[in-house]
Amino acid sequence: MIQIDNVSKQFASRGGSKPGLSLASLLGKRSAPQLVQAVKDVSVHAPDGRITGLLGANGAGKTTTLRMLGGLFQPDSGSITVDGIAVASQPREALARMGILGDAHGLYPRLSARENIIYFGRLQGMEADAADARAVELARLLEMQHILDRRAEGFSQGERMKTALARALVHDPANIVLDEPTNGLDVLATRALREALRHLRSPAGGAKTIIFSTHIMQEVEQLCEHVVVVAQGRSVAEGSVPELLELAGEARFEDAFVKLAFASAVAEEQKNLRSAA
Ligand SMILES: Nc1ncnc2c1ncn2[C@@H]1O[C@H](COP(=O)(O)OP(=O)(O)OP(=O)(O)O)[C@@H](O)[C@H]1O
After folding, report:
1. Do 74 and 161 fall within a single domain?
2. Last residue of a domain, one of 115, 138, 172
3. 58 lines ligand 1 (CB under 6 A)
4. Nearest-CA neighbor of 45 among 86, 4, 97?
5. Which residues form the signal peptide (predicted)?
6. Whole-number Cα distances in Å, 179 to 39, 55, 230
7. Is the pLDDT of residue 239 over 90?
8. Across residues 69-88, what is the average pLDDT?
9. What is the pTM of this model?
10. Would the CB of 64 count as within 6 Å of ligand 1?
11. Would the CB of 35 count as within 6 Å of ligand 1?
């Protein structure tokens, strides 16, 4: 179970040199850092045995939220727990309970898929035999037996994703976190991933907690029992797809998403204008 409560995160982003032949740019001086409020107030409750989708447009704050969940940096405010363990105070324990597939798959190119998976298992404290047995089991689940003993260099996007996912799942974590997992995948690879995730959240697959981020509506409609709509750094609506359709008063999910995500963005803009006036 994953519980993200009211997290926020601001970054200081340094601008480039001013364009043109100003004295500052000639001297190589850079402008002052700009503050970017990547996440303002996001909450997500993901129980066991459910696929929870984080649905948002580009730049909505999904990846930043998942990076905080993965302990890459701490939220400025709010809290995150994994199976009741706080990521901020017990990151090792919390991380051991998660399998994370980030946006960069970062495989070792000289190792085979099997070796990549086993290596991660060893890092998680598994015996080599147990990690190897698990690599074989995951290769069957993810339909990647034919590449198991091939070096990762030269793998296609789909083959890289499957290997990275198998690596993330090697220690059989109770919680699975995927950032835009179908990016760059063709229809067959997307279907195979969908099937694997359905199995993993079923009782036979271990009733895993699964959170994944996406901006693709069809993916959410086909896979998620629960959807959290993220817009402008906030979670602005949540529920099942039928519940969100009803909330927005729309028949098509795309229309419902646009209404829920961007109505709040317009309201926020108006609020900012009012407070600036
Ligand atoms: N390290 C950083 N420094 C500065 N700004 C950042 C940083 N990371 C994210 N941002 C900004 O925070 C906002 C949210 O980014 P984030 O990557 O979380 O969005 P996203 O919903 O995952 O988008 P996408 O679907 O495009 O990947 C964006 O405006 C982004 O430019």
Report:
1. no
2. 172
3. yes
4. 4
5. none
6. 16, 11, 14
7. yes
8. 96
9. 0.89
10. yes
11. no
Q: Is residue 23 part of a domain?
A: no
Last residue of a domain, one of 117, 137, 172: 172
Only one residue has tokens 């980030």, namely 102
Take residue 232 and report the two structure tokens written for it: 């402008």
Number of domains in the chain: 2
**Per-residue pLDDT at 185:** 83
The residue type of 106 is: G
Residue 103 Cα: closest atom of ligand 1: 27
**Residue-range definition of the domain harbouring residue 124:** 105-172
- Which of 201, 195, 200, 209 lies closest to 97, judged by CA? 209
The finding on whether 68 has its CB within 6 A of some atom of ligand 1 is: no
CATH number, domain of 197, equals 3.40.50.300
